[in-house]
Amino acid sequence: MMNSAVRIRGLRVVRGPVTVLDDFDLDIRAGSLTGLLGPSGSGKSTLMRAVVGVQKVAGGTVDVLGRPAGDKSLRDRVAYVTQAPSIYADLTVRQNLRYYARVLGAPMSDVDRAIEQVDLGSRADHLVGRLSGGQESRVSLATALLGTPEVLVLDEPTVGLDPVLRVQLWELFNRLAQDGVTLLVSSHVMDEAERCERLILLREGRLLADDTLPALLARTGAADAEGAFLELVEKAEQEVAS
Ligand SMILES: Nc1ncnc2c1ncn2[C@@H]1O[C@H](COP(=O)(O)OP(=O)(O)OP(=O)(O)O)[C@@H](O)[C@H]1O
């Protein structure tokens, strides 16, 4: 049996007038790097919110590390970075991280390690308010690396980053997974699929595919993730029409 870090069964989420997820099942293996891909509005953030336990759900179960999502015992075992950075513009990078380390009860020695991991060593004493958007989102990411979270849920962490930095971050995610961390990382950039061990393709709250990139390409005959996605969308639409 798979050693699941995340186990979702029959999840139903309704936001306003929209049923975003319905009868949704998913297992994420412990120590894996899973890419959650799909167009804007497909339900990626909603799914991530459910995994970290901040989303009101209308039905089904979400278990993380064997506990219900959002359970108190998961507080320092699961880290979540949203698209909106929750860091202080009037503090330096290091001051922000020291603050979060204190809040989380993480050792102060984690601060410099996390700053190095996101490649912000040369900016450690700069005010966050004076950083670029990409640098700012890396400070957010660094806060999630404090302590030793077993599950990292990252909502579009590479948005606004240049290609070199994006590659570096995906390398970091892969290294963390090799060290046993379970990562769920969303993106609407299909070519990021190449960097994940496993892909989840979402469209309108439906799981279009849950596979490795090579398997997905073989199955669809497409040359890349974007082509595979379009192929699967077309197939799904034909099924609905027939
Ligand atoms: N606060 C909200 N109230 C009502 N509906 C919402 C709310 N937030 C999101 N939705 C709806 O839920 C659906 C899924 O949104 P979600 O943010 O999960 O998508 P996403 O794939 O993460 O998109 P993006 O890449 O743009 O962040 C969309 O139809 C959206 O309009």
Q: What this model shows, in words?
A:
The chain is α/β, with parallel strands linked by helices and 242 residues long. 34% of the residues lie in helices and 26% in strands. It is built from 7 helices and 10 strands. β7 (151-154), α5 (163-178) and β8 form a beta-alpha-beta unit. It is globular and about 60 Å long. The mean pLDDT is 91. Bound molecules: adenosine-5'-triphosphate. Residues 15-16, 18, 20, 38, 40-46, 188 line the site of adenosine-5'-triphosphate.
Layout of SSEs?
Elements: E1 4-15, E2 18-29, E3 33-37, H1 44-52, E4 59-64, E5 67-68, E6 78-81, H2 93-104, H3 109-117, H4 133-144, E7 151-154, H5 163-178, E8 182-187, E9 198-203, E10 206-211, H6 213-220, H7 225-241
Parallel strand pairs: 3-8, 3-9, 6-7, 7-8
Antiparallel strand pairs: 1-2, 1-4, 4-5, 9-10
Helix pairs in contact: 2-3, 6-7
The structure holds adenosine-5'-triphosphate.
